[in-house]
Write a structure and sequence with these properties.
homodimer, alpha+beta, 3-stranded antiparallel beta sheet, 5 helices
Chain lengths: 128, 128
């Protein structure tokens, strides 16, 4: 077993970013540095108005996104952008997520090899 | 924008598996097909007794892990194993996680390229 005290604690998986719906929101926004309209973001993430609002409030509170409202032809238009800090933290989070994937894939492969190995040192593989 | 209605909904990110502590538990277990003792799992994931018990109850309820108790030299020994369904679902979850990473990395790269591109169609890049 690894010497590291808790190799699978994944402290870097920040709960604010790790939540499934917020992961979709952040992925949508990282692709659109100029921001996305509320309606477009809602569609991309398959969320309801209420759910998107709730998750944006969490992300806004953590300074990960900036929400601006203006009027266009007398209709309110809400635009959501990733903040520079939000982009930085999301990229760091993705690095940690990559580590999870690498660990898990390596672990699954190692277990497979173990399964395939003969049970006893002297055992021969069964004929094909 | 993609034609797919909600490309960033990530329906495959099953909440039972996506939770940060449970992700660590499952990664630990996928590496140990014969199971892990409660104390070892606790250490690998950096969890308290109470937290590990609570998360194992959720995973057991979903038939992702099997918890067995036996006595060894009169002391109770709890062993936790991934069930075959648990292994299957965890590997499927990892596939979806890989999709998130691919999407996000591609999105971040595309945004970078956009930033680096000239602002006006006729503009020439600044001399190096």
């Amino acid at each position: 077993m690894p010497a590291e005290p808790a190799p699978y604690a994944y402290e870097g998986l920040d709960r604010v970013l790790h939540e499934k719906a917020r992961l979709g929101i952040l992925t949508s926004l990282v692709a659109h540095p100029d921001g996305l309209a509320f309606a477009d973001l809602k569609r991309l993430c398959g969320l309801t108005d209420g759910n998107l609002s709730r998750h944006l409030a969490v992300l806004d509170e953590a300074d990960l996104v900036a929400v601006t409202k203006r009027f266009e032809k007398k209709r309110p238009l809400t635009t959501i952008r990733l903040t520079p800090a939000g982009r930085r933290r999301f990229l760091a989070y993705l690095g940690e997520l990559e580590r999870v994937l690498r660990d898990a894939a390596a672990a699954a492969r190692a277990a497979d090899t173990e399964d395939a190995a003969p049970q006893h040192p002297g055992a021969r593989p069964a004929p094909a």
